[in-house]
Design goal:
109 residues, mainly alpha, 6 helices
Length: 109
């Protein structure tokens, strides 16, 4: 399988920031991001079914603990570090967050 290019990773980073910045969880966005990164095979199984169950549920309605777990499982599906959540939550300026995300999973040869 081909490794994602910088273009793929940058577009996935923007999409991930957008996903976590919305008022609700969107499983379709997760599937799109996974496809861009070549991780679509990871969109299966019981954990993914649990994510699908909270599709379109507002983050606020999940409560703090479940919202964090959903974000962590999202990153687990994408094989990204959990620290990405803190980067997205802590930053107000999206371009900075996108750059941090790009650096979080950009593989250098």
């Amino acid at each position: 399988m081909n490794e994602p290019t910088e273009f793929h990773q940058r577009s996935a980073a923007v999409a991930l920031v957008n996903l976590f910045s919305k008022t609700h969880f969107d499983i379709c966005a997760l599937q799109s991001i996974a496809k861009v990164l070549g991780k679509e095979a990871r969109c299966a199984g019981r954990d993914f079914d649990a994510l699908r169950a909270v599709h379109c549920v507002d983050w606020a309605d999940m409560g703090t603990d479940l919202a964090r777990m959903v974000k962590e499982k999202t990153l687990e599906v994408l094989e990204l570090p959990a620290q990405v959540i803190d980067a997205v939550d802590a930053e107000q300026h999206k371009p900075k967050v996108v750059e941090k995300l790009r650096l979080a999973f950009w593989r250098r040869p």
